[in-house]
Amino acid sequence: MIAWEDVYKVVVAMTPLYVALGLGYGSVRWWHIFTPEQCGAINRLVSFFTLPLFTFEFTAHIDPFDMNYRFIAADAISKVIIVLVLGAWAKCSSSKGSYCWSITNFSLSTLTNTLVVGVPLLKAMYGPLGQDLVVQASVIQGIIWLTVLLFVLEVRRTRSDVSIRAITGDSDQVADNSNKDVEGNQTVIIPSRPSFWSVMKIVWLKLALNPNSYASIVGVTWAFISNRWHFAMPSILEGSVLVMSKAGTGMAMFSMGLFMAMQEKLIACGISLTVFGMVLRFIAGPAAMAIGSIAMGLHGDVLRIAIIQAALPQSITSFIYAREYGLHAEVLSTAVIFGMLVSLPVLIAYYLVLGLLS
């Protein structure tokens, strides 16, 4: 049974994040230290340096030979369910922005803050088993699902950039009307939609240059090697990684505070979208995980842990990506902030209800 001292440990783990958030907010709103351009540069620093090193550091220290692969398969099934539902909604929707909202809704439904909130809370609830499974979920999220999110965001940006360049490059020719073929006939050049392969070529090149796309893969590769042949990471290398990775979560929250300070309202996305995001985070995600877990035959504490970890608050990394790629960052920032505020009573309620149903 979770005790008050366990709740206190979770609060202790979460409070420094809000301190970093407050410092970021105050540095723009009250103290006017950073300009909007500088705030964007700070977010880029977090996105390309501190978060990739943070991801590498925690994935490099797992034991991939001692993972619960039925639990991981259940998590994959839950993500597939969410993707299928969002894909069907995007196809049936008449809104032109449905594809973009599908990306954001995927983040809201599936990507969780497993390390900061999940580890202390699940350890308090279920002991070492809870901690072990939530770390496994975090590693898989970094290797697969955050990489998938990065890929679709890059595809969206690249398609937009290529289309804009095509239109801009041809607009002078279209406006001239003086274009003629070799026989002297009048021609008009109409920009065409970029081909799939031209977009993919650019996307893969960008991903190859983005450390977020391979930080977790390099980390888990090292984990396989080190656990198979019992190698220890050289202290000089580990120290070099730690000096930046320790700042990962704190700097991400600081960047979120900067972003909040530049918005006109505290709840940047409005009440209705905030409520919608909370429903996806705390209801839709756990429901999909329950289906996946039952399908994989999970039971007992493993089933309960699977459902509760799916109801953890919003991933901070999802906001950093949304900010970097300019897609509904106000929605993700609100989801992170309010999600962490309401998550503790919600997760304890899940814990009590699931305990009664056992």
From TrEMBL:
An example Gene Ontology CC term for this record: endoplasmic reticulum
Keywords: Auxin signaling pathway, Membrane, Transmembrane, Transmembrane helix, Transport
UniProt-recorded Gene Ontology molecular function terms: auxin efflux transmembrane transporter activity
Source organism of the structure: Cinnamomum micranthum f. kanehirae
Entry keyword Transport: yes
Compartment(s): Membrane
Phylogenetic classification of the source organism: Eukaryota, Viridiplantae, Streptophyta, Embryophyta, Tracheophyta
Residues that span the membrane, as ranges: 7-28, 71-90, 102-121, 133-153, 203-225, 231-254, 266-296, 334-353
InterPro entries the UniProt entry points to: Auxin_eff_plant, Auxin_Efflux_Carrier, Mem_transp_PIN-like
Name of the protein: Auxin efflux carrier component
Principal subcellular localisation of the protein: membrane
One GO term of the biological process aspect: auxin-activated signaling pathway
Topological type in the membrane: Multi-pass membrane protein
Origin superkingdom: Eukaryota
